[in-house]
C-alpha cells in the first residue's frame, strides 16, 4: 500500500524549494515535481534519500534521476496539456510520472525488461496510465509518431536521426549528447522537413543510451 503522509509532502515541498533555488522557474514544472511522491520509487529504508536532490541506484546499472535534472529537462520541453510526448528510457518511472502531471499523452519506452516490468507495476499502483513499450528507445516509436515533444533520459553519442524524423513541425527534442563521461544538454526544434534549430545548455552525466542509434 502506498502512503503519502504530511511528512512526505513536507519533505517534497523542501525538495521543490531546493530545485527552485537552483534555477528552475516554470511554476507548472515545480508543481508537477511536488505532486509526484518520489519515495514511492524507493525501498522504505531509503526514505531520506528519496527527498535529497541526488540520483540513486535502482538496479540493472541504472539510476532514478536527480530531481533537478528531471525538472531541468522537463522545463526545456515546454509541455502543453495537449502535447503528445515520447520519453526514451522509462527507468524507474519517476520522470514519466512527472510528465503525466503536464499531459496525459505520454508514451515511454524502456530497453531493459526488468525495469520495464517494475515501472509498469509502479504505474499501476499509482493509478497512472502512460503508454508503455519495451524496446530500443534510440529508434523511437515510428508507429506512433509524430510527437510534439521527445525526451531522452540517457546520454547519447549522437542525435539519432530517427528521433528527428518523429517530431511534428515545431516539435522539440531534448537530449544529452556526448561521451560516456559527460554530455551537453541539447534542445532541437523542427522548423521544416529537413530544417532544425539546435540550442546548447549545461553539462550533465547520464547513464548511456543503449541501442542501434546509441551505445552498442
Would you summarize the structure shown here?
This protein is an alpha/beta fold and 216 residues long. It has helices at residues 6-21, 27-35, 47-50, 67-77, 94-99, 113-126, 161-164, and strands at residues 56-59, 62-64, 85-88, 106-110, 131-134, 147-152, 167-178, 183-190, 196-204.
Instruction: Find the count of extended strands (DSSP E, 2+ residues).
Output: 9
- H-E order: HHHEEHEHEHEEHEEE
Number of helices: 7
Low-confidence stretches: none
Strand-residue proportion: 25-35%
Shape: globular
Rg, Cα atoms, Å:
16 Å
Please tell me the overall pLDDT.
94
Query: Distance between the terminal alpha carbons, to the nearest Å?
Result: 39 Å
CATH architecture label of the domain at 54-204: 3-Layer(aba) Sandwich
Q: What is the SS-derived class?
A: alpha/beta
CATH topology of the domain at 54-204: Rossmann fold
Summarize the main sheet.
Answer: 7 strands, mixed
Instruction: Please identify the top-level CATH class of the domain at 54-204.
Output: Alpha Beta
Strand order of the largest sheet: 5-4-3-6-7-8-9
Enzyme class: transferase
Keywords: Cytoplasm, Methyltransferase, S-adenosyl-L-methionine, Transferase
Family: Belongs to the methyltransferase superfamily. L-isoaspartyl/D-aspartyl protein methyltransferase family.
Protein name: Protein-L-isoaspartate O-methyltransferase
Amino acid at each position: 500500500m502506498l502512503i503519502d503522509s504530511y511528512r512526505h509532502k513536507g519533505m517534497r515541498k523542501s525538495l521543490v524549494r531546493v530545485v527552485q533555488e537552483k534555477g528552475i522557474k516554470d511554476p507548472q514544472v515545480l508543481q508537477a515535481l511536488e505532486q509526484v511522491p518520489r519515495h514511492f520509487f524507493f525501498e522504505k529504508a531509503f526514505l531520506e534519500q528519496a527527498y535529497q536532490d541526488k540520483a540513486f541506484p535502482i538496479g540493472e546499472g541504472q539510476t532514478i534521476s536527480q530531481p533537478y535534472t528531471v525538472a531541468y529537462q522537463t522545463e526545456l520541453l515546454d509541455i502543453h496539456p495537449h502535447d503528445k510526448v515520447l520519453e526514451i528510457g522509462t527507468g524507474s518511472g519517476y520522470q514519466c510520472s512527472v510528465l503525466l502531471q503536464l499531459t496525459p499523452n505520454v508514451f515511454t519506452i524502456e530497453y531493459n525488461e526488468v525495469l520495464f516490468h517494475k515501472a509498469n507495476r509502479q504505474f499501476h499502483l499509482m493509478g497512472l496510465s502512460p503508454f508503455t513499450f519495451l524496446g530500443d528507445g534510440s529508434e523511437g516509436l515510428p508507429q506512433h509518431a509524430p510527437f510534439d515533444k521527445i525526451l531522452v533520459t540517457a546520454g547519447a553519442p549522437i542525435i539519432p536521426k530517427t528521433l528527428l524524423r518523429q517530431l511534428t513541425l515545431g516539435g522539440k527534442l531534448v537530449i544529452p549528447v556526448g561521451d560516456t563521461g559527460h554530455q551537453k544538454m541539447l534542445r532541437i526544434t523542427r522548423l521544416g522537413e529537413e530544417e532544425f534549430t539546435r540550442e546548447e545548455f549545461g553539462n550533465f552525466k547520464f547513464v548511456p543510451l543503449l541501442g542501434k542509434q546509441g551505445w552498442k
